[in-house]
Amino acid sequence: MTKSRIEARFAALKAQDRAAFVAYVMAGDPDRATALKILQGLPAAGADLIELGFPFSDPMAEGPPIQKAAQRALKNGMTLKGVLDLAAEFRQGDDVTPLILMGYLNPLVTWGFEAFAQAAAQAGIDGLIIVDCPPEEADPLADALDAADISLIRLATPTTDDKRLPVVLRRTSGFVYYVSVTGVTGAKEADAEAVRPAVARIRAASGLPVAVGFGIRTPERAGAIARVADAAVVGSALVDEVAEALAVNEDVTGRVLSKVRALAEAVRQARTSLPA
Amino acid sequence: MNAPIPPATPNDFAAYPDAQGRFGQFGGRYVAETLMPLVLDLEAAYLASREDTAFQAELAGLLTHYVGRPSPLYFAERLTEHFGGAKIYFKREDLNHTGAHKINNCIGQILLARKMGKTRIIAETGAGQHGVATATVCARFGLPCVVYMGAVDVARQKPNVFRMNLLGAEVTPVTSGASTLKDAMNEALRDWVTNVEDTYYLIGSAAGPHPYPMMVRDFQAIMGREIREQILEAEGRLPDAVVACVGGGSNAIGTFHPFLNDESVRIIGVEAAGDGMGTDRHAAAINGGRPGVLHGNKTYLLQDAEGQITEAHSISAGLDYPGIGPEHSWLHDVGRAQYLTATDIEALDAFKLCAELEGIIPALESSHAIARLPDIAREVGKGGIVVMNLSGRGDKDVATVADHLGRTI
Ligand SMILES: Cc1ncc(COP(=O)(O)O)c(C=O)c1O
Fold first, then answer.
1. Among B194, B196, B303, whose Cβ lies nearest the Cβ of A187?
2. ipTM score here?
3. C-beta pairs of B50-54 under 8 Å, 24+ apart in sequence
């Protein structure tokens, strides 16, 4: 029952009355060994859930930071099989932190949905976010993932009106990912006050926790979002740490994890301390 | 060939796509959720425009008086003689305003954008022909226009970049990936997902998410309908084959579509083989790729064993794309159309031959179709009729061709 890792984590956080901090990292960025070290360090640094990006050559919803991270990972030979190996190795030391794969459909088409879903379940994957697979196209993939007990996490966005919301939430499980800005990753900043009603609406309609991402870069912003949502997702800002550490020849793992600590701390404090 | 069990032959080829935007297994709407309401709105607006007589009348008027339609169907007498087989006719899209078939689609879509109340237009371009056509209609209708163009293409199609600027468009060079058409399309999609309120994405080929492949085809099918009328008038019968080059596939599908249900008409597309099909430097999605998902649709794609999209290579910027419109993938799989290839060198030779024998300088894209004409004319044979879409003129390509001939201009 892999789904239960997501459910158990959100249930535990709810009991503590705090939001989850979700860290997005790109598998294989900048190379496999470093990516594994980062992954293994994330839970202790405060990541409650992990989104593991798998690289695609044409990530059309990604801004420059994650585009470049995917390019670095591909250049160093990362493959989808390699991503699952990485996940499996992480799972040997951590059987509780939910692991969500995030990426684009074509590598899965190549593998074959059924075979991929089985392999992903074996590797300890709990959920999947596929950016270019809207509900209208999702049934074949959802069938394969259901059979493997993996959640297909759906995306709601500022363009999701009341008419569209039930379509988006059909067959969803785990949690709902609210893309808080119209745009690519890492470009615009999310406004917590604008996000609040959207989160409430999605939570009511789905009965599931709502994670907010795409527009969070700083601890302040992560804290503000954590006050109104069930989870705050940070990706581009972490991936930028990889790029910057590489540029100045610093310890990549150390830099990423210290950023994670600052963000996670802000999320943990969000509901106990009032905003400054 | 590609599928072990070929799909059943449809009764009515013209009845596709289905309500989900599918041509068999191909097509669909594989876009980010943010864009889903937009493509659904676009589909509704487009379907309404088909029933809107005022819209259709305005479209027809512009096609006549602004684009210069109908374009002639020209009997290429000397090439016919030279090849020694079937009679060759050219559909002269090179004579349109802006010099290619691309404008047919742009006129249709700009009217739709205006009807939808959109106030900003974005487009991707490879050769710059679609960019020029988009900039042209934006100037004509007073709408701001941003064209995404791979940095490599900006360099090899300089005259078109300048033309777009003259027409008031902003050309944004794209440096991600290989800096060609595929990357320009990624960047245009990123713009669209960011500017969802006011922006209309004017896609230039019969590719992308539904409804684009259907809509662009319909706007381009005016070519095939004219060919039908014109060949019936000239020869009193339908052609034995229709031929077109295939990049994203808009000039080809616009030519083919009105003939799909005419069993006697052979349908032949020509993909760009670049350095050759034995190399990995080509742009032939059907002949050298396999089905996958990119840019909003399922179709044949150039990709590696991992499903990463690989770079296309062609001397012709307009064919330099790793995908192909989904309807072509389907026509290939069901066996209704045949997709051949032509290399860079074959296209260059055809370019020169057409200039020398017919006094027509063809676009390098169209030259790929010309390059296969000798074989097709021979196969169809004397007494037969072949119509080829001369999709554009080659003025934009003279620098590239001079380069390859080792000449400086
Ligand atoms: C003259 C001409 N022909 C053909 C093409 C290829 O596009 P499509 O396959 O959509 O007709 C282009 C694209 O730029 C072009 O400019």
1. B194
2. 0.95
3. B50/B218, B52/B115
